[in-house]
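Fig. S4 source data, part A: sequence.
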Amino acid sequence: MQFGMIGLGRMGANMVRRLLRGGHELVVYDRAESPVRALAAEGARGAHTLQSFVQQLATPRHICLMVPAAFVDATLAELEPLLAPGDVLIDGGNSNHQDDIARAHRLSARGLEYVDMGTSGGVWGLERGYCLMIGGKPQVVQRLDPIFATLAPGASSQAPVAATPGLAGSSTAPRGYLHCGPVGAGHFVKMIHNGIEYGLMAAYAEGFNILKHAGIGKAHAGGEDAETTPLRNPEHYAYDFNLAEIAELWRHGSVITSWLLDLTAQALASDGGLSKFAGRVSDSGEGRWTVAAANDLGVPAHVLTAALFERFASRGQDRFQNQVLSAMRFGFGGHVEQPAGEQGQVKK
């Protein structure tokens, strides 16, 4: 099947490669010339302008945008005048589902079809396949089935997972892709997926942090300061855990096994102190939208909200509120801040 890809970053370029391996004909475009040249050398047809890109695609065209959510509308504004009724635009990035609904409505006035495709798989997707959460008209989604089936893990995945016993019908979900509903449904499901991802990542991070600090009793100075709750029975916290080995242990037979744990084990095995990471964790929007949706729906999301706020804190956004706390403690009780690393210890 002929297919066009706009946006050849880490995800887009590897999706092109996976489709090429599956026998599809790819036309590719990116504002940067180097990824276009690289993929042209691998068998794709490269274009250096949007006009050339569109001209190389037979109608009805099937075009996927793998660009950051902030640039989707600008890209569509350039692309729309070049398209013809019946052409299909797929947003494979991480757009807000409400933006999908507005875009589909606007594009339909020109006879253009719109599909939202939530995509999970990251830099490993080339080999493992991509989990696809799809929204759009049934007939349009069905027309694109050969593309989705190639991109998804399918039965030939390197790490196949058997279908859940009792799953009704002939769902494509066990193959790693699913038509979730009308326009917006795909990105809504992907939004919740990423909100859950935040929570899972935070749980692993907090657990390993407790293990890392479980030897604090060994450095106990034998006295306490007036500002800090004393550590009871410091001899009970004299552990020196090998975090890499514990991560590896949990990968084998425990109930918390996951791909995220696999990646954590790899990171700890190569650098137990994670020295190349500063600990500033970005959020690309889906966690915020998940919490906003929970608020709109009146549905509690305690864990997901806490995980989102932890990311804000990791970037220093809690610094001033902590200064306010310190100022209040000093104001009502004369409590003086202790230097970092000296709480619970007596200076000699």
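Fig. S4 source data, part B ends here. Confidence is low (pLDDT under 50) at residues 344-348.
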